[in-house]
Design brief:
- By secondary structure, the chain is of the alpha/beta class.
- The chain folds into three domains: 292 residues, 3-Layer(bba) Sandwich (FAD/NAD(P)-binding domain), CATH 3.50.50; 139 residues, Succinate dehydrogenase/fumarate reductase flavoprotein, catalytic domain (Flavocytochrome C3, Chain A, domain 1), CATH 3.90.700; 132 residues, Fumarate reductase/succinate dehydrogenase flavoprotein-like, C-terminal domain (Methane Monooxygenase Hydroxylase, Chain G, domain 1, Up-down Bundle).
- Helices cover 36% and strands 17% of the residues.
- Strands 1, 2, 6, 7, 8, 9 and 16 form a seven-stranded mixed β-sheet that branches.
- Helix 1 runs parallel beside helix 4, helix 3 crosses helix 12 and helix 10 crosses helix 11.
- The protein is globular, with a radius of gyration of 23 Å.
- Bound molecules: flavin-adenine dinucleotide (FAD).
- The site of flavin-adenine dinucleotide has 45 residues, from helix 1, strand 2, helix 4, strand 7 and helix 5.
- Pfam families: FAD_binding_2, Succ_DH_flav_C.
């Protein structure tokens, strides 16, 4: 019989990123007892790395902006696979969420007349991203964290949740351990909010922090919740490619928003070569007009470097593949060229992009005020995740809610930059509000002691196998999984490669039942990785199976064997669920018809 400590709360929030903290604030304000559990330290969640800004149609820089334009930009970017109700709520509510953050103490950059400054970003028709230099996430987390603590929310840092606990169909708590001593913990909760972020670390090259393994998506899946849109992974066009130790680290789209341009090894601005039909009317045809757009000329159209991320990433891949890349397998991103255009360009770049300046100077020895950066695509974001009700954020499992990057629906086939920070504010708040309301009307459930013991025994099994010669090394499995995902389920996919990926994943699933670790339970990375592998492999399988099912190319999902969009697939989302035998089922779910008033807005904005 394994010992564990127990905790009781009405609402348990898993994750202390923007989504988790915003949810905790709202739930706590509703008067229920709230806890946040996170496996990093408070303030270290991945949101802190967000750079470019938070999208909200405040209209401070261009008063033609409003929620309807933001709504249609989001749908166009998502190639119309978005949940339109979520896109509507997001566009309508994000301005209030940003203003509220300001009222709570966030210090955004300012316009000359003292309003929140907004910058250009890919796919957004008008300058829309409220920002704090290129450290927006840091300021957001600082503000949300201060307020969460002020409200008296209980915080459990360096605790990892391994499994959710159910009574019948409904959620009644969660099982985890503290990383410091490796002791088991059982949380009793009437409602649980998953806010565990993304999954970039299941790929070899990623902009994400170590924490982003997709564990919340997997926790929800194993608790019976449905997943959707898992095939849509965003490969950000501009990650560092050199030196190898920092490959994948992000270079914010803000660089292009400030006038940075992409060139191949012949110095050609190749983004003018391929502009999608749906964006032609909004895109400049000459370099001069593109530059004027970045400097706030309301009559100019945006440069092709600010097309959506999926498209820019594929154009970069084309240049590299066809031999026009940079020495280390990327292309060039040049902001230094603006010296030709503005006085004090060096100072301007350092003020607008301080983190980028330091990142390149310290990590690559490159002064971005003088030289171009070498960049290439990096795994960045997952549009798919846990399926939620648009208004309440409740999943298909009663009592289980999800918000932020681990939840799906808002972004469809491709997310616009800046729409994640607004997503987590809008839907984090909603998740907190509805989880608190659910907890108030739901009696506390009963946790099954036998289930807890079984989970604990399984969690300790890698130690039991520690001395066995046949024991599998968790780091090796993780590393191979990352390679297979990078090579076979990456930016360009084929049916054959996806089938091969699934075969590998099935073998990895077999291997994790032999995974072994040694040492004691305190701060044991081998053990942590052994436990995390189940989640990483579950998420990898869901991505590969959904990608195999979608026989077309759209947004973040590109199939070389089906390079065109298909009308039929344009009407369906791919859903993933665990069946009664424990197998992963994949189905096509027809999207409901768009509400007439929303359809009318889309038609008017075309
Ligand atoms: P996170 O911030 O990732 O937080 C997840 C939390 O869950 C963490 O506290 C983690 O410890 C915890 N957790 C995870 N699993 C477990 C577990 N099993 N048990 C316990 N705790 C767990 N988006 C924008 O809109 N604008 C930007 O400018 C922008 N810039 C970005 C820059 C970079 C470099 C990157 C990589 C992304 C950027 N994004 C941006 C995307 C955006 O930052 C993320 O999508 C967003 O911050 C995710 O927030 P979240 O609250 O959902 O999750």
């Amino acid at each position: 019989m394994t010992n564990y400590e127990t905790y009781h709360h009405d609402v348990l929030v898993i994750g202390s990123g923007g989504a988790g903290l915003r949810a905790a604030i709202e739930a706590s304000a509703a008067g229920v007892s709230v806890a946040v559990v996170c496996r990093s330290l408070l303030g270290k969640a991945h949101t802190v790395m967000a750079e470019g800004g938070v999208a909200a149609a405040l209209g401070n820089v261009d008063d033609r902006d409003n929620w309807k334009v933001h709504f249609t930009d989001t749908l166009r970017g998502g190639q119309y696979l978005n949940n339109e109700r979520m896109a509507e709520l997001h566009a309508k509510e994000s301005p209030d969420r940003v203003r509220e953050l300001e009222a709570w103490g966030a210090v955004f950059d300012r316009t000359d007349d003292g309003r929140i400054l907004q910058r250009n970003f890919g796919g957004h028709k008008y300058p829309r991203l409220a920002h704090v230099g290129d450290r927006t996430g840091l300021e957001m987390i600082r503000t949300l964290q201060d307020y969460t603590i002020h409200l008296g929310v209980d915080i459990y840092q360096e605790f990892t949740i391994v499994s959710l606990l159910k009574e019948g169909e409904k959620i009644v708590g969660a099982f985890g351990y503290d990383r410091e001593k490796g002791l088991f913990k059982v949380f009793h909760a009437k409602a649980v909010i998953i806010a565990t972020g993304g999954m970039g670390r299941i790929y070899r090259i990623s902009s994400n922090s170590w924490d982003c393994t997709g564990s919340g998506i997997s926790l929800a899946y194993h608790a019976g919740a449905e997943l959707i849109d898992m095939e849509f992974v965003q490969f950000h066009p501009t990650g560092m490619v050199w030196p190898p130790s920092v490959r994948g680290l992000l270079i914010t789209e803000g660089v292009r928003g400030e006038g940075g341009v992409l060139r191949n090894n012949a110095g050609r601005r190749f983004m003018f070569d391929d502009v999608p039909e749906s964006y032609r009317a909004q895109t400049s045809t000459d370099e001069e007009e593109g530059w004027r757009y970045t400097q706030g000329d309301k009559n100019a159209k945006r440069p092709p470097e600010l097309l959506t991320r999926d498209h820019v990433a594929r154009c970069i891949m084309r240049e590299i593949k066809e031999g026009r890349g940079s020495p280390h397998g990327g292309v060039y991103l040049d902001i230094a060229w603006i010296k030709e255009k503005i006085p004090n360009a060096t100072e301007h770049i350092r003020r607008k992009l301080p983190s980028m300046y330091h990142q390149f100077k310290e990590l690559a020895g490159v002064d971005i005020t003088k030289e171009a950066m070498e960049v290439g695509p990096t795994t960045h974001y997952i549009m798919g995740g846990v399926k939620v009700d648009a208004d309440s954020q409740m999943t298909s499992t009663p009592g289980l809610f999800a918000a932020g990057e681990c939840a799906a629906g808002l972004h469809g086939a491709n997310r616009l930059g800046g729409n994640s920070l607004s997503d987590l504010l809008v839907f984090g708040k909603r998740a907190g509000e509805y989880a608190a309301a659910y907890a108030k009307k739901t009696p506390a459930g009963k946790i099954n002691e036998q289930e807890v013991q079984e989970i604990a025994t399984a969690a300790l099994a890698p130690f039991e196998r520690g001395s066995s010669a046949e024991g599998e090394n968790p780091f090796q499995i993780q590393s191979k999984l990352q390679d297979r995902m990078q090579d076979l389920v990456g930016i360009v996919r084929t049916g054959k490669e996806l089938e091969a990926a699934i075969e590998h994943i099935v073998q990895f699933k077999e291997k994790i039942s032999h995974v072994a670790c040694s040492g004691n339970r305190g701060y044991n990375p081998g053990w942590h990785t052994a436990l995390e592998l189940t989640h990483m492999i579950t998420v990898a399988e869901a991505i590969a199976r959904a990608a195999l099912q979608r026989k077309e190319s759209r947004g973040g999902h590109y199939r070389e064997d089906f390079p065109e969009k298909s009308d039929a697939f344009g009407k369906v989302n791919i859903a993933i669920k665990k069946d009664d035998k424990g197998d992963m089922t994949v189905t096509q779910v027809t999207k409901p018809k768009m509400r007439d008033d929303l359809q009318q807005i889309v038609n008017e904005m075309k």
